[in-house]
Design brief:
724 residues; alpha/beta; Rossmann fold; Immunoglobulin-like; 5 domains; six-stranded mixed beta sheet; 33 strands
Length: 724
């Protein structure tokens, strides 16, 4: 039994009132000797016993009335499962509010997050005055808006009402573990955790571990899982958007691939998909005839960029009740001109004998009179001229059959790669493999593989080997998954170095693992790549000219070189497109170091911005930004510039589009360790929690009993007074 108003139990002291009155009102008898009294003695003694008994009964009735009245005012209650104490405010709680992307689902009037906010306020109202409460926003991270329990309920109510939904993923077990750790540190008698969520199944991994955790603390902590909103049976989401063209030049069609997934239970038909640049109307639109439930379809759409610089591309589908995944955006750096430095290690006598002759023509595959207007520009230098070249003027540097380079050039190359440059290495007969293996592979870590022994004989062309004919998995060669695009396997190779890939467990975080781009038919690596800093290195096993192969005269050579150049150019741009919640780190112009940058978030007004400063980090001029909880396009400006100096985008986890809730079998995992509550506007959480906290009150029984005794006291008192 517990008392909700325990202080009123002091009213029981009032029992003393009728006792004192009874004692004060007791008649004092003066003894007088009277002879006739002798004959009345027996009658008086008999009446005296009756009067004493009547007075005692009335006294007990009046005491009982005060006792039961005090008990009724103290509001006694009984909680199933045991007896409480005397109640009070010795309680602390954590209200954890799910603000992940799936909470955007709407019933047409309000979103699940709106409902969760109302449920959180009701949970707050159910706590007794004097309690302490913390308020968290939880997704795949925990944001402690009020990290530790506080007695300031006004602040708690304010942060609940002003809370914002994010586009982050869901990881509820991790949030529960952290909540248990924090609430266990509290010294209060009653400890509670309220987790208010939509119950999305994708956000509950390792249910057995979660049960074990809650089971271990159930004696000290009461956990309540509050589920809001109804399950949605229909949902289409844009789950992928990427540029499939090699490069994004100005005023040329650029192809993008859009992926749309059907997370509903019925087939989706005639799904219209549109795509547009920046805030302009859609530039292209097409329909997907059918998407079966649980599957996804891809469609190619085209856009054109009218100006160089940073742009955004957004794909849309018709709106549904889960608006968070009805669009997806990526940022693109459109280049007006791409400059490539070709270092010719064997220029020959005639132009066709140059090591970079075919490479130069593949990069600029237009007639001579159109080369000045073509967006790719090349410059050819000798190895000795490389020392004086300004590498920062070029998007890519090609070493073609270059024997070696001075140490000073290697230092410049390292800085160039770290800031986002690209390096392509073609070996040849003049290549010093020992130099490359020692300096570029082992010492500097540029190359994805070391050069091994050469195989084949370039002097005779009767014997040759081919590139792989299928399984083109790397993005550079993925276009040849379509047989209509041709095949790299048509090229003949007469001689090539063996490539021995570097170990994947590179101790330096700024050096990526080696990746296979192309292999020979026998599985030996033919082309490999790795990232270095913000740059990328591509390593071939054979020559760029026709001395060791005929790849350079095959139709696939031009798209292969362009896609390699695209992979290099877009390497730095990979940091323009992030998963929601990731941190931006983008290399800026060194002249901007110390400048303040204003960043506008997706959908935000211009006055709702964040300020950051470009600063040197590990020698690089970086713009860093970590407030990326919302999916969409972010604009970075300096001063009052109308055109953003940088534009980047974040994308939500496609798993957030899976709206399936925990199944009944999953929910049974929480039996005995957590209370499950299904919230709705019609069934307020406050009443449920209040009853759960106080138990079943039975003050009315005491009040009725007190009234009945008062009536009995009045009736007996009147009757017995008449008889006297």
């Amino acid at each position: 039994m517990a008392f909700l108003n325990p202080l009123l139990l002091f009213g029981i002291i009032g029992i003393a009132s009728p006792i004192i009155i009874h004692l004060l009102a007791k008649k004092r008898i003066k003894r007088t000797v009277w002879a006739a009294m002798k004959f009345l003695k027996l009658v008086v003694e008999k009446n005296q016993r009756r009067l004493t008994l009547e007075d005692l009964i009335l006294l007990l009735l009046r005491c009982a009335v005060l006792l039961f009245l005090a008990l009724a005012m103290a509001r006694p209650s009984f909680k199933q499962g045991g007896f409480g104490g005397f109640g009070g405010s010795n309680e602390s709680a954590i209200i954890a509010l799910d603000n992940s992307a799936s909470m955007s689902q709407s019933d047409g009037v309000s979103s699940k997050f709106d409902k969760a906010q109302k449920a959180a306020e009701e949970a707050l109202d159910a706590l007794p005055s004097g309690s302490s409460v913390a308020v968290w926003l939880v997704s795949d991270v925990v944001k402690g808006v009020i990290p530790e329990p506080t007695h300031d309920f006004a602040l708690a109510r304010k942060v609940i009402r002003e809370a914002q939904r994010s586009d982050r993923g869901t990881e509820m077990p991790a949030a529960l573990r952290q909540a248990v750790e924090v609430i266990q540190r509290q010294t209060t008698v009653v400890k509670q955790i309220f987790l208010i969520t939509d119950g999305q199944a994708a956000g509950w991994k390792q249910l057995a571990d979660t049960r074990a955790l809650l089971d271990s603390v159930k004696k000290d902590i009461q956990t309540r899982l509050v589920f809001v909103g109804e399950s949605e049976q229909h949902n289409l989401g844009v789950t992928g958007l990427r540029m499939s063209s090699a490069l994004a030049p100005v005023n040329q069609p650029v192809r993008f691939e859009v992926e749309v997934a059907n997370y509903g239970v019925e087939e989706a038909k005639n799904v219209q998909v549109s795509i547009g640049v920046d805030a302009e109307p859609p530039g292209d639109e097409a329909g997907i005839e059918s998407i079966p439930p649980g599957e996804s379809k891809r469609i190619s759409l085209f856009v054109q960029f009218r100006e160089p610089g940073f742009h955004s591309v957004t794909a849309h589908i018709p709106a549904d009740r889960n608006p968070a995944d009805d669009q997806r955006a990526v940022a693109v750096r459109v280049i007006g001109e791409i400059n490539v430095l070709l270092v010719d290690g064997d220029p020959g006598i005639e132009p066709r004998e140059s090591e970079v002759f075919y490479l130069r023509n593949a990069l600029v595959p237009v007639p001579p009179e159109q080369r000045e207007k073509y967006y790719i520009k090349t410059k050819t230098v000798s190895p000795t001229d490389l020392a004086t070249a300004k590498l920062s003027d070029y998007e890519a540097v090609v070493l073609a059959n270059v024997p070696d380079v001075p140490d000073g050039v290697l230092a410049g190359l390292e800085k160039y790669l770290r800031t986002g440059g690209g390096l392509i290495v073609f070996p040849g007969g003049k290549t010093s493999t020992s130099f490359y293996n020692e300096k570029l592979f082992t010492e500097r870590g540029f190359l994805p593989a070391s050069f091994g022994a050469a195989r084949g004989n370039a002097e005779q062309q009767e014997q040759f080997f081919h590139l792989q004919a299928k399984s083109y998995e790397h993005p550079i060669v993925a276009i040849w998954k379509d047989p209509a695009a041709g095949s790299p396997a048509t090229a003949n190779f007469y001689r090539a170095f063996a490539l021995d890939p570097a170990k994947s467990d590179v101790p330096r975080a700024d050096i990526g693992p080696p990746a296979l781009v192309l292999s020979y038919a026998d599985g030996q690596p033919a082309v490999m790549e790795r990232t270095f800093g913000y740059g990328r290195v591509i390593q071939f096993s054979s020559t760029a000219d026709s001395a060791w192969n005929d790849l350079c005269i095959r139709p696939i050579f031009v798209p292969l070189i362009h896609r390699i150049l695209g992979a290099i150019v877009t390497r730095q741009d990979e940091h323009l497109n992030l998963r929601v919640g990731s941190k931006l780190g983008y290399v800026m112009d060194p002249e901007l170091v110390g400048k303040d940058v204003t960043i506008t978030k997706p959908g935000a007004k211009k006055d709702a911005t964040a300020l950051r400063r470009i600063a040197l980090n590990a020698g690089l001029p970086l713009l860093q930004f970590d407030e990326t909880d919302m999916a969409g396009v972010y604009d970075a400006r300096t001063g009052d510039d109308a055109t953003p100096m940088l534009r980047f985008a974040t994308q939500a986890d496609p798993a957030e589009s899976r709206l399936e809730e925990l199944s009944p079998a999953d929910l049974k995992v929480f039996d005995g360790v957590a209370q499950l509550i299904r919230w709705s506007p019609e069934h307020g959480l406050r009443a449920v929690l209040q009853k759960e906290r106080t138990g079943s009150e039975f003050w009315l029984a005491f009040a009725i009993l007190a009234l009945a005794l008062a009536i009995a006291d009045t009736w007996f008192g009147n009757r017995w007074s008449q008889s006297k």
